[in-house]
Design goal:
This protein is of the alpha/beta class. It has a single domain, classed as TIM Barrel (Alpha-Beta Barrel), CATH 3.20.20.70. The protein has helices at residues 14-20, 41-45, 61-69, 90-93, 95-106, 123-127, 154-166, 184-197, 213-221, 231-245, and strands spanning 2-4, 11-12, 24-25, 29-31, 55-58, 77-79, 110-114, 132-138, 171-178, 202-206, 250-251. The strands form two sheets. The protein has an eight-stranded mixed sheet.
């Protein structure tokens, strides 16, 4: 683990704003301890260090972010796009908490995407936002230590999602990536559990490794594969049908459920 100083933190994303509905991303850490085999982040950041064993703390992130927000057009901020904003280290470093304080002070809408129940620590802070939501990532209704060796258990994520929903925080699920070979029973169970936990929407995106060579190598080593022709669409249809039965809207574009899908000026 290393401390890293940064010159900028608020990343304006043309692709994000146009395709996924967010204007900016903020990554308080570099690297991620979850070690998910399919993760695209090391391919995107071009980090050759062993994935899952690296976590750099951007120790000046809250200060840099507060400065950048004063100059930025208002737009939805995704926290985070290339790391989990709540790694275990966050319990001590509190860098994400500092970033949330800066975002609240600046009045920016925020979407938190995590796999960690540690986000519950910041429930009082999240309640102070006029526009905030929290999403949890899932690939299955059951734990997958083969592909996700250090991800918090599914049950703990569902409990955290429920607590946030009961605490008046809008919640969503990111079923991404949807993995080849997922069973119909698994998808049905996941849809039912997400509905019971109070998720207001689900985003679903099938696995695609063609642009991420590091992830492709890891998945092949573990016996993973790409989707066969037509397989992904069939799984998507089944999940959408199961979710519809429990009143859970399913979207194939992240943040499609939000009213503002417009880029920030210049984005």
């Amino acid at each position: 683990m290393e401390d890293r100083t940064v010159q900028s933190l608020l990343t304006r994303s043309r692709r994000g704003a146009l395709h996924y509905g967010f204007a900016y991303s903020v990554n308080p850490y570099r690297g991620c301890p979850h070690a998910c085999a399919y993760c695209y982040a090391d391919s995107v950041t071009r980090d050759d260090r062993p994935w899952g064993l690296v976590l750099d703390r951007k120790v000046d992130a809250p200060r840099i972010l507060a400065r950048e927000l004063r100059q930025a057009p208002r737009g939805l901020v995704l926290l985070s796009s290339a790391t989990d904003p709540y790694p275990p280290e966050e319990a001590h470093s509190r860098i994400t908490e500092g970033c949330l304080l800066a975002l609240r002070e600046a009045g920016f809408p925020v979407s938190v995407l995590t796999r960690s129940p540690l986000v519950l620590r910041d429930l009082p802070l999240l309640r102070a936002f006029p526009d905030v939501e929290v999403g949890f990532s899932f690939t299955s209704s059951r734990d997958r230590p083969d592909y996700e060796p250090r991800v918090p258990p599914v049950a703990s994520r569902l409990r955290a999602l429920r607590r946030l929903s009961e605490g008046s925080i809008p919640t969503f699920a990111s079923v991404a990536p949807l993995l080849p070979g997922t069973s119909s029973e698994d998808l049905r169970a996941l849809a039912e559990e997400l509905g019971e936990a109070g998720a207001r929407a689900a985003f679903v995106d099938p696995l695609s490794l063609s642009s991420y060579p590091a992830a492709a190598r890891r998945m092949r080593t573990l016996g993973g594969r790409e989707f066969a022709p037509g397989e992904a669409e069939e799984l998507l249809r089944r999940f959408e049908a199961d979710a519809q039965r429990v009143g859970l809207p399913v979207h194939r574009r992240l943040f499609a459920w939000r009213r503002e899908a417009t880029p920030a000026a210049g984005g």
